[in-house]
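Onboarding guide, step 5: your first structure request.
Type a short instruction followed by the sequence, for example:

Predict the 3D structure of this protein.
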Amino acid sequence: MILPISALAANIAASASAAVAKSAIRFEELGLSPVALQIGSFQLKWYSLAYLFGILIGYWYMGKMLKQPGAPMAQRHADDLMLYCTLGIILGGRLGYVTFYRPDLYATPLEVFKVWEGGMSFHGGLIGVLLAIAYLTWRNRLSYLRVGDYVSCVVPLGLLFGRLANFVNAELWGRPTDVPWAVIFPTDPDGLPRHPSQLYEAGLEGLVLGLVLMVLFWKTDVRHRPGFLGGVFLAGYGAARFIVEYFRNPDAHLIEFAEQTGMSMGQWLTVPMILIGLYLMVSSRGRTAKPLPATA
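The system replies with structure tokens like these:
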């Protein structure tokens, strides 16, 4: 019996899909677990540790930078900033997620604060950190742009740990693909080979952007141009996130939004970041670094 062309094409496609699925990496084979430590009913998850590691290592790195000549704040300011930014990351990240991605949760206010159930937005966390910097600089009469430059050099460390934790949690996976490194995640109801977009983000937003800022800080004098490093971070993160969104699977309830607007929610949120970042970089030539207040 001769199959119709359409049926033959469907069989070929199904065979190809089966072959791709067979060669894909199964997440379970990696031996990863979202739980780092379990004692009885107590569970310590890698996602929580990622936030902790990012904040502590960022604090240590900030101390190293502040020892260089011309720092915009003293160590005591960094101590306060650590607390303010931690609150900004947690509260801003959660409120940003609910506002940008799950506004329906506002109908049940208690659900908004259930951070342990997952759901954090980088853009919301960024707004929280910006507000934290604003409060610190206002209270101590410091330069907002220069403090922001130093914080910008630290943020990629947190992004690196956070995205790796996303991968370990088997969440925020990418679009279906046939690349050799495709992963089949146990949380995917369709069981399709997908881009490990969490690792793409860890590489671009965390490792690459962090190295670029590190080289600029330690090997050039741009840290004395208020706003330049902050601009590099905003534009660099925005560009990296914009690119990765083509590989990242959009949230189910935002697929229609992406189809209607031509870009995902994540891409729309990066556009102002890129524009502001470019402006800060270009305009930084006209600014001069001011010394710390005498009371510092």
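Each response can be followed by summary notes, for example: The longest helix spans residues 75-100.
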